[in-house]
Write a structure and sequence with these properties.
alpha+beta; 2 domains
């Protein structure tokens, strides 16, 4: 593996110039292609013609991975044990294992975060007997968008507490998949299970 130092130069393809150009390795802040963040102060090959980042050397990959891991914010909470059971049963109903539960929750949270009417229904679900109980099981969700989706859903549902919000989402999953099965949603989720299984 070649290690590049600041000031080293070589020829590389520049995506902006659409031609091979001389690049100079410099310290740069490099944004992710999807606009979700930035890796600060890494060695990157900068085109001497247009001053854009043309190439990232392999030695900078660990810094990029570290930044991506930071962006995968974890949402941690504790819920009553029976809620984990409800999620496991819903997952089984879709033909999936308990490993599918985090994806199921993230799917629901994302869908609810863009549906104000359904989001408001979470408050009603929290009045049921199933919403109560000693919070003795850990529930953890990780992802680059989960924090944003939860914040949107809190605003739409008017539920400020993350634990209460997630309990409401669990109860909605229970309602949609086990109590009053939504055939269309189940078909979509079964298709999703088939692609990730």
């Amino acid at each position: 593996m070649i290690i590049y130092k600041v000031g080293d130069e070589k020829k590389a393809m520049c995506g902006v110039c659409e031609a091979f150009r001389i690049v100079s390795y410099q310290l740069r802040d490099v944004p992710f292609d999807d606009g979700s963040g930035m890796v600060k102060n890494i060695i990157a090959g900068v085109c001497k013609t247009c001053d854009s980042v043309a190439v990232i050397p392999y030695q900078s990959v660990p810094a990029i991975k570290k930044q991506l891991q930071r962006q995968r914010k974890a949402v941690e909470t504790r819920v009553p044990a029976h809620m984990i059971d409800l999620l496991n049963m819903a997952s089984a109903e879709l033909g999936a294992t308990p490993d599918f539960v985090p994806l199921l929750l993230k799917y629901y949270i994302h869908q609810l975060a863009s549906n104000p009417e359904a989001a408001l229904h979470l408050v009603t679900l929290l009045t049921s007997e199933l919403a109560t109980g000693l919070a003795n099981k850990r529930l953890s969700l990780k992802g680059r968008e989960i924090g944003n989706d939860i914040e949107k859903l809190k605003t739409l549902s008017q539920i400020d507490n993350t634990t209460e919000l997630l309990k409401g989402v669990v109860l909605m999953i229970h309602h949609d998949l086990l109590i009053n099965p939504d055939a269309q949603r189940i078909a979509v989720l079964k298709s999703f299970v088939a692609t990730v299984a």
